[in-house]
Design brief:
The protein is mainly alpha-helical and about 110 residues long. The chain contains six helices and no strands. Bound molecules: heme C. Heme C (HEC) binds next to α5.
């Protein structure tokens, strides 16, 4: 009986954690690791500015805003894909935030 209880509790917490931290959409997950230059060639200054606004409005709700310069493009690519669903951003907003962060990331 004890074993069953453990299984049920473990299963329930896994489900709970997954619903709190949903996975990013397929579109977001499929975005490749891009360099600063590649990002700047693909997004206009206005789009990067929009990404900045979304970042400022949506990424400081649970923790302090993280400085873009703290991470390399590779590190941002990984982290921001985890954070996009947490911030409840749609694919377009997610892409802009990711582009903004990579455009201002640390030189690797
Ligand atoms: C719903 C709450 C929530 C929102 C909104 C959120 N985060 Fe987070 N973030 C967390 C939690 C919880 C952690 C610590 C645990 C972890 O790393 O998963 C974290 C950790 C981080 C870290 C440090 C961990 C690492 O891998 O370096 C960075 C950087 C980060 N968030 C960036 C962002 C960005 C960018 C956004 C906006 C797109 C964002 N966060 C929006 C909850 C949130």
């Amino acid at each position: 009986m004890k074993k069953l209880k453990v299984i049920i509790i473990t299963g329930a917490s896994v489900v709970l954690m997954m619903s709190c931290f949903p996975k990013a959409s397929k579109v977001i997950r499929a975005l490749p690791v891009e360099s600063k230059e590649q990002i700047k060639a693909q997004y206009t200054a206005a789009q990067l500015e929009e990404g900045h606004t979304i970042f400022t409005n949506s990424c400081g709700k649970c923790h302090k805003l993280k400085e873009p310069g703290l991470k390399t493009p590779e590190q941002w690519n990984k982290t921001v894909k985890r954070m996009i669903p947490r911030a409840k951003l749609n694919d377009d907003q997610g892409k802009l935030v990711r582009a903004y962060l990579i455009a201002h990331s640390k030189d690797s």
